[in-house]
Amino acid sequence: VQLGVYIHFPFCLRRCGYCDFASCASEAAAIPHTRYADAVLRELDARATAFAAHELRSVYFGGGTPSLWAPAEVARVLAAVRASLGAAAELEVTLEANPGTLAAGACAVLREAGVNRMSLGVQSLDEAALRLLGRIHSAKQARAAVAQARREGGVRLSCDLIFGLPGQSLAHHLGQLDELCALGPEHVSAYALSLAADAPLRERSRAAGLAPAPEELVAEMMVAGRERLARAGFPQYEVSSYAPRPARSRHNALVWAGHPYLGLGASAHSMLPLGRANLRSANPPLARYLDAPIVLPEADGDAAQATVVGSSVELVAEPSSRFEQMFLALRTVDGVDRAAYAARFGADPLAHFRDPLEELAAQELVTLDADRIAPTARGILYADELALRLLA
Ligand code: SF4
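YS: structure for the whole thing
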């Protein structure tokens, strides 16, 4: 069985106005690079055994801003992960990078350490939009970061873009996509802005007299943006992800297909399928993670795992884990592999979700092929709605 490892780095220089990730603002000099790496390695040491029978296919450094982490510490953690879990010959190692944080030479050091894919948080190539979002970097720095990663790193590049900004027009969004594609990434992630009720960006937009983008406009941006990206060589393969098949994100593909993943670091989540159930756990946030002891399992058995004290652990029973599998798969253009689903859950998805799936097929929101059940091009625009219908 294939395995992904996710390593969370929870520090950022400043909080963006829309962020709801587990991250805290910290001065660069105050980041405990080595102490945090030590904590991650302690956790790896205790928890790797439960995942050791798997084949490690992907390591993903996410955040927060992992490009703030001293490259030598990233290298140390990566080497330990490889040593503990073994690794496929062509292991994919991704690191999320903020364009405002790449010191000269950093990409070369990271490449040397084994990072072969970089996910750059460009978010916009418009200076006013970047200021509104509260990003620490300019559009010029984003372009420079792409050039630097190419020059120094020789890594595969993914670029993130946010759309549906307050006051944004459809033409502006399409222009942004054109500019982003012109930078020549291998992969694009385009996300519709979603704001928590207390996100500072709400107040900032109000003060600037910018109205939130209406839902219909955001839907239009999704449809027109998808066409624009496909024409530029980036076909959609998941709700927010665009790339030719060989350049798809392996880490995300593992998660969507229901493979196990081990999450290390503050607030990181893990998932281990146990038969037809899923064992899910979430580490405590930074304040309680750094010095947290690790408890070893009291008894033997699959569900007995070492955990960081303060983690939440939940055994998701079969009916909910079946739904989780369908929910994730129906966010991807490939949908659910019927044979793989049946091998795990003992019956075809149609046996478990016949009424809603036949109804969705009649409405041309999903296709029921012999080997796969997948959303149609229209259906994937309503991925959340499809999931709710399965739940009902
Ligand atoms: S850089 Fe990313 S994780 Fe950090 S505050 Fe901004 S959106 Fe959040």
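YS: worth flagging: The chain has 14 helices and 19 strands.
IM: good catch. Also Residues 75 and 113 are 5 Å apart (CA to CA).
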